[in-house]
Each structure stands twice: as C-alpha cells, then as structure tokens.
Amino acid sequence: MAAASSSQTLKRTPLFDRHVDAGAKLVPFAGWEMPVQYRGIREEHIAVRTACGVFDVSHMGEIETTGPQAAERLQRLLSNDVDKLAV
Fold first, then answer.
1. How is residue 30 annotated by DSSP?
2. Cα 35 from Cα 24, distance rounded (Å)
3. With pLDDT > 70 as the criterion, what percentage of the chain qualifies?
C-alpha cells in the first residue's frame, strides 16, 4: 500500500500505460515511475541480444531549438511529427 501512495507523486512518461499493460515492475527513478523489469533479467537479456530492445527515454530531458529552420531540422532528427507538437 505504501508504494501506491508514494507513486501518486511520481511523474509518468507518455508510455506509462503501455508499460503497465506489458506487466512491467515499476519503481521510482529520479522522480519518475519507471519500468525496471518485465519477465526477468535473463529472459530480457536474451531477448535484447537476439532480437531487439527499446528504452523509454521520454523522461530524460528537454531541448530548446530556435531559428527559422528549427522545425525543419527537428523533423529530420526526431521520430515524432514535429508539426503535431505543441510549442
């Protein structure tokens, strides 16, 4: 019960619900509620080494970009559609 009440003050990434749906074990990390494990360390290690692994970096920072070609440059660098992002 204590973990649930303390997690209410933690920030959550946009992928939080996906982590929960995938069965992630969530822990506090630098003010965020982050997944640390899904099925087990060994199984996950083998999956990443033989297939693919993804790490949610949406909690890791912000960037500021300015200038007449800022949106165009970000569109080339990022996987999101920059035109759909709020300023």
1. T
2. 6
3. 91
